[in-house]
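Re: weekly structure request thread

Next one in the queue (290 aa):
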Amino acid sequence: METGVSVSTNTPKSRLSVSWVIEYMENRILAVEGKKRSTWNHYRSSLLMFQEIFGETYSLAVFNSTNIYDFQNSIIKTGKSPTTVNTYCRGMAAIFHRLKKSALVKENPFEEFEPVREPVRDNLIKPEERVRFLEEVDRLKDQNYARLLRILAYTGIRRSEVLFLHRDDVDLLNNRFQVTNIKSRKGEKRWLTIPPKVRGCFAYFLEHPGDYPFKICRPDCLGKWAKYCMTEAGLSYHTHSLRHTFITLSLKKGLSIRETQRIAGHKDAKTTELYAHDAEDYYETPDIDF
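Done, posted below.
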């Protein structure tokens, strides 16, 4: 039977209470590592959620990998999305990693935690629903946001990826654009074809000055406009549903897992494979442009 995280012989378990770790980590991240306050706030939110579930006197020394399910399930019961649950878990993984480096614990129970997966099928936008969404996009007063949302719908790239497109990343002459994978620490890039239906959108932004002509807002702001258009169209999807649908339709069109993985910018082919079963069940004619 697992008894919890192994603790350094020189570390009293009382020093690893949630409240003590919050104070210790704040000093380490801000003073010792010199990280930004926003970075600390990310880790702090994970610790506060951990504290809400287990209590401020709970010792991280007794937490082990078998408790991760309880942690995840308790967060889900608060109404948080699977994405948020995974964000909290990654925050705790980073915290345990630092505690391990400081020799306060010998193991990181979150090192290989199993992420909570959001059902892909629930995120598939049907063709008629996509038409309604794009109709609402066309009604937006600020057409700059509308152009960005069209690019997301027809390319399947992430919000941050479109906003941080450099001028040199777009090659209109050869009808292609280069995307920096925001999920890759190495800043890996991938070339994608510009779909005919949004070629004009790319050309429009390139007429504006600056190295990053697409960067007109923050990713969360673009997400709010996408949500607004979804709501106005009577839909309950979120921004990432555009990407989920694009990837599923790519597989349905007959692209291989490997090629779809490259287009989507997935680090692991297993992530792409999650969409394969839904592609088999998606009987609508794919409305997709490459």
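Residues 198 and 272 are 25 Å apart (CA to CA). Residues 282-288 have pLDDT under 50 and may be disordered.
Next request, please.
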